[in-house]
Amino acid sequence: MNRTVIILTIVECPRQVKIEVLEKNDTNLRLVIKEADVPFMNALRRIALAEVPSMAIDEVVMIENSSILQDEIIAHRLGLTPLKTDLNSYNLPEECECKSEFGCPLCRVTLTLDAEAKEGIRTVYSGELVSENPDIVPVSDKVPIIKLAKGQKLKLEAYARLGKGKDHAKWQPVSMCAYKYYPQIEVSTEDCGDCGAKCVNICPKKVLTVKENKVEVRELLACNLCMDCVEACPKEPKPIKVGWEKNAFIMNIESTGVLPPERVLQEATKILDKQLAEFEEQLKEETEK
Amino acid sequence: MIIPVRCFTCGKLIGDRWEEFARRVRTGENASDILDSLGIKRYCCRRMLLSNVEIIDEVLRFYEEAEKRKESRSFY
Ligand SMILES: [Zn+2]
Ligand SMILES: [Zn+2]
């Protein structure tokens, strides 16, 4: 009896995300992320924008306001002032154990402001807010809150708490979180005619350049895939090809200063994890009934 | 009225850059160069500073005058 043995070789698919840092400073982070897909990148982007908590003033008690701006406008300006956030020692009010609508020291920070213009016009800055916790202070000391004329007074007590961007934009930890495809540009110099570098001049990002009478890619990562260079080329078929790499992205995060940008992404992945775990638990519960 | 704290569109903090921007514009520097050096890249944030008029300064003048009048009245 003959037996044929078929050996199936299972090729392991290497799907591990590869991250490369292009630029990193206090507020900006630029990454190349490879072996990821659009749904995944978009989930991270949306969570960074709408679900990563940060600290902002939410309630203001006006004690005295004889300035020319109404209480609401001043409260709004205070709310929008970004505060440095400490996610490790503060809870979201809805998750805090105190269950109190007034909050407790674990979910609320009190800041006070007492300013008076004694002589002439004076500007009140965010740096004049006195916080009960020296770690939770405005990101910048130089944000003008209001201008007071001589004799006018502003005295208030403000309560800051953690919140999420989906409830109000003041809690958004990032002012920009965006991704784009990793560009791929091919220029076949043999077919390229002498058109006076139309493709080079039209590019708003100055991606292309002319070197020794040849069109070359100068800065690939700046390309935003607008295809203007392809359209500007008078030759047919086009010697310049613009496309994008599959499963590779450039992600750009700009923090408002409340959290370092890398921390925002870390928190976003944690939240995604938590949401998936909750989903799995619910699914198990409901299907095994 | 007064410079907004954040950019209306993207939410970047721009209020703290206003005074430097206004001072440097008054010295005759090119507004575009100032915005570049302040690190304000996107046009949504740039228009916040470019198009702002501090009306609060005009309004405060009335209060200053009223205060002066009150002082002179009590002086006589
Ligand atoms: Zn609490
Ligand atoms: Zn903006």
Index terms:
heterodimer; A: 289 residues; RNA Polymerase Alpha Subunit, Chain A, domain 2; 4-stranded antiparallel sheet; 5 helices; 12 strands; B: 76 residues; mainly alpha
Describe the structure.
The complex is a heterodimer of chains A (289) and B (76). With 289 residues, chain A is an alpha+beta fold. Chain A folds into 2 domains: 18-50 and 175-253, 2-Layer Sandwich (Gyrase A, domain 2), CATH 3.30.1360; 54-167, Beta Complex (RNA Polymerase Alpha Subunit, Chain A, domain 2). Helix content of chain A is 21%, strand content 33%. Chain A has helices at 38-50, 71-80, 198-202, 228-232, 261-287, and strands spanning 18-24, 28-34, 54-65, 109-116, 122-125, 130-131, 144-148, 153-163, 174-187, 208-211, 214-217, 240-255. The longest helix of chain A is centred in the last third of the chain and has 27 residues, at 261-287. The radius of gyration of chain A is 27 Å and the shape is flat. With 76 residues, chain B is mainly alpha-helical. Chain B has a single domain, classed as Arc Repressor Mutant, subunit A. Chain B is built from 4 helices and no strands. Chain B has helices spanning 18-26, 31-37, 43-50, 55-75. Chain B starts with 17 loop residues before the first helix and ends with a helix. The mean pLDDT of chain B is 92. Classes of the chains: A alpha+beta (289), B mainly alpha (76). Chains A and B meet through helix 2, strand 7 and strand 9 of A and helix 4 of B. The complex binds zinc ion (ZN) (2 copies). One zinc ion (ZN) is lined by residues 7, 9-10, 12, 42, 44-45 of chain B.
